[in-house]
């Protein structure tokens, strides 16, 4: 190749680099790349730290924000409990009134028909077994209603997990028993024999008891409903 052609290829700024100088240049370039990489990592770290700080600040703001829903929910819950207690009190009062009315109906009818069997105050002196049997059945039913009234009045128990009393719907059995007994007496009293003598008193008492089964039906149905509501819906 001629000298003129060589001059055409390499211009005036061409610089010859030896092997040692080339290694230094590579090292400097690598150092520059490491510095750029460290700068990028540092920038990312700062961004991540800023993000975490913002998240913490948001949590603090959330914690400091007042909870306006909780007081309102407590107020609604307390109001609901008061309503339930009031309804329960009214239903229990109604149950007690129904029990008292049934007691009165039984007492009135048994007393009205007792004179046919003699003087009740002289029954034991005169050994009037017919009147004694009649009076015995009447007293059994009246005492049953009286104790049912007391059970309804105090018929609540403490909850297993809270220190409060729950209505268990006491009185349900008494209404079922009174009406079922009256209806069966109406159907079966005619089958009772008249001998021995005291069976006449049993027959007479059951005849009176059975004769009022239509009067007792609405009273007992209303009582059963009130007990079921107290037991399962309003406690």
UniProtKB/TrEMBL annotation:
This is Uncharacterized protein. Keywords: Membrane, Transmembrane, Transmembrane helix. It comes from the Bacteria. The keyword Transmembrane applies. It comes from Sporofaciens musculi. Residues 53-65 have a biased composition (Basic residues). Residues 48-68 are annotated as: Disordered. The chain crosses the membrane at residues 89-111, 131-152, 172-194, 206-229.
């Amino acid at each position: 190749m001629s000298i003129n052609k060589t001059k055409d290829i390499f211009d005036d700024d061409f610089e010859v680099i030896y092997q040692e100088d080339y290694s230094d240049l590579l090292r400097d370039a690598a150092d520059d790349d490491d510095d750029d990489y460290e700068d990028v990592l540092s920038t990312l770290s700062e961004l991540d730290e800023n993000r975490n700080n913002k998240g913490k600040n948001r949590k603090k703001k959330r914690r400091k924000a007042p909870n306006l829903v909780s007081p309102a929910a407590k107020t609604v819950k307390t109001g609901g409990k008061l309503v339930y207690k009031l309804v329960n009190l009214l239903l229990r009062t109604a149950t007690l009134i129904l029990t008292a009315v049934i007691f009165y109906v039984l007492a009135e009818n048994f007393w009205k028909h007792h004179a046919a069997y003699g003087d009740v105050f002289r029954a034991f002196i005169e050994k009037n077994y017919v009147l004694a049997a009649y009076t015995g059945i009447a007293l059994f039913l009246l005492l049953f209603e009286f104790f049912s009234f007391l059970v309804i009045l105090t018929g609540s128990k403490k909850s297993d997990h809270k220190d409060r009393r729950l209505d268990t719907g006491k009185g349900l059995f008494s209404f079922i028993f009174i009406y079922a007994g009256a209806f069966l007496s109406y159907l079966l009293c005619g089958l009772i024999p008249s001998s021995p003598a005291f069976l006449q008193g049993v027959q007479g008492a059951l005849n009176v008891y059975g004769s009022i089964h239509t009067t007792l039906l609405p009273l007992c149905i209303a009582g059963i409903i009130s007990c079921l509501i107290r037991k399962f819906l309003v406690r």
